[in-house]
Each structure stands twice: as C-alpha cells, then as structure tokens.
Amino acid sequence: MKRLVILGGGYGGLRIIERVLSPDLPDNVFVTLVDRMPFHGLKTEYYALAAGTEPEKAVRVPFPSDPRLTIKFGEVTGVNMDERIVTFANGDTLAYDWLVIALGCEDRYHDIPGAEQYTHSIQTMNATRNTYTAINNLGPYGTVTIIGGGLSGVELASELRESRPDLNIRIVDRGPSILSPFPKKLQQYASQWFIEHDVQLVSMASVTRVEPGVVYNHNEPVETDVTVWTAGIQASRIVRALPIEKDNIGRAKLNQYHQIPEYPNVYVVGDCASLPIAPSAQSAELQGEQIAMMLKKDIKGEEYPASLPDIKHKGFLGSLGKKEGFGVMGKVSLVGQMPRVMKSGVLWMYKKHLG
Ligand SMILES: Cc1cc2nc3c(=O)[nH]c(=O)nc-3n(C[C@H](O)[C@H](O)[C@H](O)COP(=O)(O)OP(=O)(O)OC[C@H]3O[C@@H](n4cnc5c(N)ncnc54)[C@H](O)[C@@H]3O)c2cc1C
C-alpha cells in the first residue's frame, strides 16, 4: 500500500486530486485530502462574502466524492519530513509516502505594530465571516478603511460600496495608484470608478501603526471603525516552519519538478510555493497539473521528463462591483462590463465543473 497525502483542498490541492484520481491510478495507492474545512472555499470570491453581497453557500463547493479518496478534517500543525509524518492540533498524526503541501498563504503585516491585532482579514473563510460581521454591524455612516489597493482590496471596496451605500470607505495604498502592478489603463479606470462612487483613495501612504479605531498614516492618526488588511501575503506558517530554503515571504524554494530538493517525495503547490509568476488561483491550478503528472510518474516508477514547461498566466479578471470590471488577456487590457461578465462566466464554469 502506498499513501499519497494532500494537505489543503484549495485551488492547487483540488486540481491535483482531480487529475490523480484517474482510471489508471494503481489500486494500491490510497489518497487522503486534509483540510480544516469540510468544503472547498472559493477564496477568489471572499471579498463578496465580507461585503455581504454573496451568501456563504455561494463561495463554497463540496469536495469530490470518490471511493479511492479519504477526507480527513483537521488543523495541520506541522510536517516532519524525516519521519514522513503530518501532525494535527488534536494530537493525531498521519503518515505518508508522498506529500503535497497546498496550504495557501496568510496575511503579512510587515512588522507594523497593531496591524495583526486590530485589522480584519479576508484570507480564510473564518476570518472573512468575522470581517463580514464587523462591517455589517456598523451603524449608518460608519467608516471602513481597507489597507492595500491590490486586487483583493479593490474588489472588496467596490463590492462594499454597492452593498452599503451609506458607509464611508477608503482605500489606503503605499503606491501612487491602486492596482499598481497592473497596466495604467486599468489603474485609471478603477480609480475613476472609485471617485464616481465616493470611495476615498489615499495614495503614497505609509501605515506606521494600527490601534483600535485608529490607523496611523505617516504617524498621523486617521479615525476608522473597521480596518481590513489586504496589504501583503506570506506562505502558510506550516511551510514557514519547515527546515528548508525559502524566499523572502516564506515560500518553499523547489526544484524544477516542484519538489523540495532534499525531500523529493514532498511537493509544494500554490501560494506557499516560490514560483516565478504572481501567486494566483490560476497559477496554483497550472502548477497542480504538472505536479499531478509528476506524482503519477512517481507512483508508476516512470522516468521523469527532462524538464517541465514554464507556467504562464493566461490573463486575469477583476471586479468593480457586480456590473463593471477589468482584466488583461494576453497584451490586451479590458475594462467595463465585458470583463465583469467574463469573470462571472469563469466562476460559473468552475463551480459547474466541480459540481
Ligand atoms: C479576496 C481575494 C481575491 C482574489 N482574487 C483572485 C482572482 O481573481 N484570481 C486569482 O487567480 N487569484 C485570486 N486570489 C488569489 C487566490 O485566491 C490564491 O492565489 C489561491 O487561493 C491559492 O490557491 P492555493 O491552493 O495555494 O491555496 P488556497 O486556495 O488558499 O487553499 C489552501 C487550503 O488549505 C487549507 N488550510 C490552510 N491551512 C491549513 C491548516 N493549517 N490545516 C488544515 N487546512 C489548512 C485551507 O482551508 C484551504 O482549503 C484572490 C485572493 C483573495 C484573498
């Protein structure tokens, strides 16, 4: 009997499971998926859950059901790669022959005092539920400060504007514009949308401290009722604690087959893997495809290919509320209703595919 254990049923982990559970999987291989949640969370949509525009049921999908798959629910606390054992918060352990670490990422607070204690998060389903409660319990004309004007901050702010027209909303970003890694056309379009929808944009900010009800920008206090942190990520703490080489945000450095070089029976996928392209659901899935292919070779004792193709993004899509959006397809920047419709279509197909 051979044991394949996959830690994390997010975008990367789930894609690997789908591909590995093919008809040619040998009978003596037992596949176990481990997650703290009893369903696949659609993390790319957590902003809508936080804003109150989508119910929780809309941002989750059941895990696959297959007689060859065992699902173990629990909080992973560590991996001992020498002993090939996963440990859990309740004291359980789980042994493996091959392991995939697909545990995603956490917020990164850049050592800013109070940031972790006094801001809300949309990185996990549970944190997003708390954020939803904090925001939606605000009385009329309360103030929400979103720190970080990247994709998730922008999607949250716009969705929240449509959900709660009464609230004062501001996005605080350290760059000259929101969406700074994206083409100028998108930055300008999104900025204009926020101006027209009465969302304050604070650029060239430097958040130096956070306290209950106060965010300090360049040490100047700014009052707020709820503060949401969307200003950076780092690898899951489980990966950060591994005794291996990591990048500056704690992601595992891997060999060309997505394995930990000293432990080639351990693969790392998605937001906790150090990849040359930006972390995203799409890159987690594309990397997952390659890992599934490598795992099948491991399982069958087949030779590895000389190299794997580069992982390339096909593009991305973002939303500005329910009716407008933006995106990049190849070299073309898209703004307006069309990218929003495309984003909804991609989500619909993804959910339909997973059943
Ligand atoms: C608001 C928001 C919007 C986004 N929008 C987009 C977008 O439009 N397009 C895009 O491509 N990307 C987007 N992203 C990024 C995308 O969600 C991530 O890159 C993607 O989820 C990474 O997939 P993953 O498989 O690495 O991790 P995840 O999908 O985060 O999966 C990790 C899994 O591990 C489980 N887990 C974690 N720790 C433990 C533990 N200790 N014990 C047990 N289980 C654990 C979690 O429950 C989860 O199921 C967005 C992110 C956010 C927050």
TrEMBL record:
Pfam families: Pyr_redox_2. The lineage of its organism: Bacteria, Bacillati, Bacillota, Bacilli, Bacillales. It comes from Brevibacillus aydinogluensis. Belongs to the NADH dehydrogenase family. InterPro entries: FAD/NAD-bd_sf (IPR036188), FAD/NAD-binding_dom (IPR023753), NADH-Q_oxidoreductase (IPR051169). This is NADH dehydrogenase. PANTHER family: 64 KDA MITOCHONDRIAL NADH DEHYDROGENASE (EUROFUNG), APOPTOSIS-INDUCING FACTOR 1. It comes from the Bacteria. Its cofactor is FAD. Keywords: FAD, Flavoprotein, Oxidoreductase. The keyword Metal-binding does not apply.
